[in-house]
Structure formats: C-alpha cells, structure tokens
Amino acid sequence: EVQLVQSGAEVKKPGESLKISCQGYGYTFANSWIAWLRQMPGKGLEWMGMIYPGDSDVRYSPSFEGQVTISADKSINTAYLQWSSLTASDTAIYYCVRPVSPSSAYDAYFDPWGQGTVVTVSS
Amino acid sequence: QSALTQPPSVSGAPGQRVTVSCTGSSSNIGAGFAVHWYQRLPGKAPKLLIFGNNNRPSGVPDRFSGSKSGSSASLAITGLRAEDETEYFCQSYDSSLSGWVFGTGTTVTVL
After folding, report:
1. I need a labelling partner for A41 at 20 to 30 A (CA). Which of A48, A115, B85, B105 fits?
2. B3 pLDDT exceeds 90?
3. Stretch B2-28: mean pLDDT, rounded?
4. Contact B92, B33 (CB under 8 A)
5. What's the average model confidence in pLDDT over A42-66?
6. Do B36 and A46 touch (CB under 8 A)?
7. What is the separation, in whole angstroms, between the first and last Cα of chain B?
8. What is the mean pLDDT of residues A105-110?
9. Range A104-114 burial, b when 16+ CB lie within 10 A, else e
C-alpha cells in the first residue's frame, strides 16, 4: 500500500525553528514529487511547494518562497518542511501529498495524503 | 482566501441525491484545468474521490460522480448514505497563482 506517514504534532514558541517530516512507503520515493499543503484554522488548503527527491529539485508557491524550506533525503524516503523562525501565523495543519499527473503536470491530483502534522505556535 | 468557492453545507435524506458545487474562474476551472474531489472523514487524511473531472479511483462507489462546465464543477452523490456525512472539497490548478488551489470545503449532512 502506498502511504505517507508524517511526524507528530508540535507545540513551539515564536522565534523557534522546526522541521517536520513525511516518510513514503510502498513506492519508489525518489521517482515521485512530494508536495506540502497548509491548512490554517478555519481556512482552506494552500499549496506551499514541492520537491522531487530524486534530484532535490524544489518548486515553491510564490506565497511561501523564502518563508519555508523544503528538502528530502531519498536514502530514507523522507521529505521535510522546515522553518527557521516560527510565528503565530504558522499555526496550522500541514499535509504532505504525492502529486499524480496522468497527463499534464498542471492537472495533477494528490494521492495519497499524509495524516497531517498539527503545528501550534504560541507564547 | 481560496480560489475555488463551495457552499459551506448541503444536506439530504438517506437515498436522495445531493450535489456540491465548486465555482472557479477563468484562471483555473474556466481555463480548462482538471477538477479533482476529495473526501475528508473526521480524524482521517483526505481521500481522493474523483480525479480528472469525472473519474473514480478503484474502490470508490459509483454513487459518486463528477462533472464540469465552464468555470464550475460539481460532485454528485446519489443514494445518500449515513457514512457519506463528512466534508468534501475540490482542487484544480490556477495559472495566475502559479499553483494548485483548493475549494473552501462543503459539509454534507444526512438528515
């Protein structure tokens, strides 16, 4: 079974750093993009960016460029999302997903989804 | 602010047909990009329900169907069941935002 397993919930203070993870199972991790999504409390999902673990090619949404860092270690089938200095507005659920593109890359859908990592930033 | 708009809630009696709309614009659905639908059960990761406007992954009952017209798309659920009571959301690509976008989410309630 293809699945993505994310690291557990985090509670952090403003200004702290954080790195959350997403491990893939059941497929060749290096050969598929992994994307990160954010869902802030009471809001819709937002695409943050994605990485191709095979060569670490990273694409960021313009809204998140410079705000987070996406990386991966293909030797352990794991992708990461990290912040150098958290703020309260980073409080959200973060999902990792695998984009699947049967034809055009723009028409990609996401399958599977990780279970989500809840990040709470509060003083 | 989500690029795709959905009604907050829809409801129907068991056995009835309900539809969930997903309204976009000329830079996403109206530009011809595919629409996909997901189901999110409480406490679970979202699950792919419809891909490529109207295709069901294996294992998804044929009670679920998708359609698209102009800048909007719809998810239809026929023969509504109690286990269908949960949140549904749509997804597409937006050329002006240079990324994938999601709907605001709709809670389906079985009366």
Report:
1. B85
2. no
3. 95
4. yes
5. 95
6. no
7. 30
8. 94
9. eebbbbbbbbb
